[in-house]
Amino acid sequence: MFRPKPTSRFILLALTFLLLANFIASITATTESEDSELEELLALDDEVEQEEEQGGASNMRSSEAEVLTKAQRIVLELNHDNTKRVIEKNEFVLVLGYAPWCARSAELMPQFAEAATSLSELGSPLLMAKLDGERYPKTASFLEIKGFPTLLLFVNGTSQVYTGGFSAEEIVIWARKKTGEPVIRISSVPAAEGFLKRHNIFVVGLFEKFEGPHYKEFVKAATADNAIQFVEVSNIDVANVLFPNVKQANLFLGIVKSEAERYTAYDGTFEMEQILKFLDYNKFPLVNRLTESNSATVYSSPLKLQVIVFAEEDEFKKLLEPLQDVARQFKSEIMFIYIDITDENLAKPYLTLFGLEEAESTVVVAFDVRVNTKYLLESNPTPSNIKEFCSGLLHGTLSPYFKSQPIPNNTNETVHVAVGKTFDDLVLNNNKNVLLEVFAPWCITCETTSKRVEKLAKHFKSLENLFFVKIDASVNEHPKLKVDDYPTLLFYTANDKENPIKLSTKTSLKDLATSINKHVKAKYEVAKDEL
Q1: At what angle do helices 64-74 and 103-121 cross, to 10 degrees?
Q2: Which of 34, 309, 319, 413 has its CA 20 to 30 A from that of 526?
Q3: Residue 460, SS3?
Q4: Helix (H/G/I), strand (E/B), else coil: 301
């Protein structure tokens, strides 16, 4: 019988102990709480800091990449095993659902990590966590993450949709408000000076005492608003650091922004609704640079008149200061927006509405959202012309803009081509009956309808009181041409151009001819069997 050698026994015994140790370690790891996991991560950060301090003057400060790495370690990585436990065990959890391939997730990730660092330093009770929704699709579905990136706040296990901005500062403000800290109290000048360095926009309230009806309305407004940090002070010197030249010693409210229109004082009554209304009309810069991350915030403005400037970055820099001067004159009445004309994702959808998607030089347009009307500045975009354009927009004297292709040559055409500029002449002011074909180049069934219209035009060419027209509605507009689908056939009778008759595009050619005969009421009807 084979007997193992002492060396073999030793190896077997060592392997046994090794396997047993790994087994015990794995059990211990699965039963550790999320608090200990987070503590280990933070402890690791402390070790890194200590190593950096001991590394000499050359290693006193981390690079931006190292700082970001540290911040990302504070964000707990969720997976299939720990997600439910984390959500249920912590009172507040802000979850970022992301995908590695998502560009917007990549943009948001460093902002989220930076916010996590700030909240940790502030002693916030909020746990920041992230989930790779592509790697853990079932967990993402469990959290009801349906797109990327998605931010969800869980309060005692119940989710709330994130409604704040996407910069680190905006995430911090929103998170603090939702976790019971709607207002920051500042009691000293040094603290006020430090606060100024960290915040781009905030509301400051000066009160003799932090009590009473005015103060309560202030706190209610701070709680209701999700985007702006509110600050309360009771010392006039501290107030003047945050908002210079405060004159009232016992009651004041104002908004501060890091832009040309830096200080705006509130002169209304201290009621929550009025304070929030004041913020809605004054929280935006004089000129708003539109990005994908702030578009929802910009579009939430209560201002229904918008002027949008499309320009290359260098050209806009030259125009910015005079444009701010114009915007200042229409403050709280017109929203001014800048879009980089080279950014196809943002600029092209707007420019297409004006048929200017290929534009390269500066374009200025306007919208009246109340009546869904658009306008185009057709003169040079000088400050004086923009000011006159804005004045016309405000007072309702601008002419709405409608897209139009160049006027075509219709000589010898059986079906005349109308464009936006000729729609009146060819259709509405035409003393004949008009059959209008409305199409779009991307419409699959439009080609079949077009061929039928051509046949009908040739067949009815002997009728002097019947006129055939077609228009590409994707690049031509008219205030009296409202079409929801393509193709569309509209019959305008000679004596009533205000109420066109819609003909079916799905009937046979003979049925269409019958309908035309019926509406034309010609003295000599053309026989249907000739078609």
Answers
A1: 80
A2: 413
A3: coil
A4: coil
Is the bond into 6 cis (omega within 30 degrees of 0)? no
Four-residue CA torsion sign, 364, 368, 374, 379 = negative
From 41, 48, 67, 102, active-site residue? 102
For residues 311 and 362, the answer to whether their CB atoms sit within 8 Å is yes
What contacts 173, CB < 8 A, 6 or more positions away?
164, 227, 228, 229
Q: CA torsion angle for 56, 60, 63, 69 (degrees, to 10)? A: 100
- Helix, strand, coil shares, percent, the chain, to 5: 45, 20, 35
Report pLDDT digits (tens) over 487-513: 999 999 999 999 999 999 998 999 999
Report pTM. 0.70
C-alpha angle 12/16/17, rounded to 5°?
120
Radius of gyration (C-alpha) of the chain in whole angstroms: 34
Residue 465's φ and ψ, nearest 5 degrees, are: -100, 20
Residue 218 half-sphere exposure toward CB, CA atoms < 13 A: 26
Cα separation values, 507 from 67, 417, 441, 472, Å: 69, 24, 22, 22
Cβ density class 109-131: b for 16+ within 10 Å, e for less: bebbbbbbbbbbeeebebbbbbb
Count the neighbouring beta carbons within 10 Å of the beta carbon of residue 228. Answer: 22
The token pair that represents 80 in the structure block: 């299939």
Residue 346, burial from CB neighbour count under 10 angstroms (0-12, 13-18, 19+): middle
Q: Which spans in 32-136 are helix H?
A: 34-54, 64-74, 83-89, 103-121
CB contact set of 431 (below 8 Å; sequence gap of 6+): 494
Between 183 and 292, name the one with better pLDDT.
Answer: 183
- Look at the block and give the residue holding tokens 């202030």: 218
390 is catalytic: no
**Would you say 159 and 144 are in contact if contact means Cβ atoms under 8 Å apart?**
yes
Residues 6+ apart with CB under 8 A from 375: 365, 366, 367, 368, 389, 393, 398, 399, 400, 401
CA distances (Å), 265 to each of 241, 262, 329, 421, in order? 15, 10, 17, 49
Question: Which one of 365, 443, 453, 469 is the catalytic residue?
Answer: 443
* Both tokens assigned to 504: 């079916």
Give the model confidence (pLDDT) of 95-149 as tens digits.
Answer: 999 999 999 999 999 999 999 999 998 889 999 999 999 999 999 999 999 999 9
* Other beta carbons less than 10 A from residue 19's beta carbon: 10
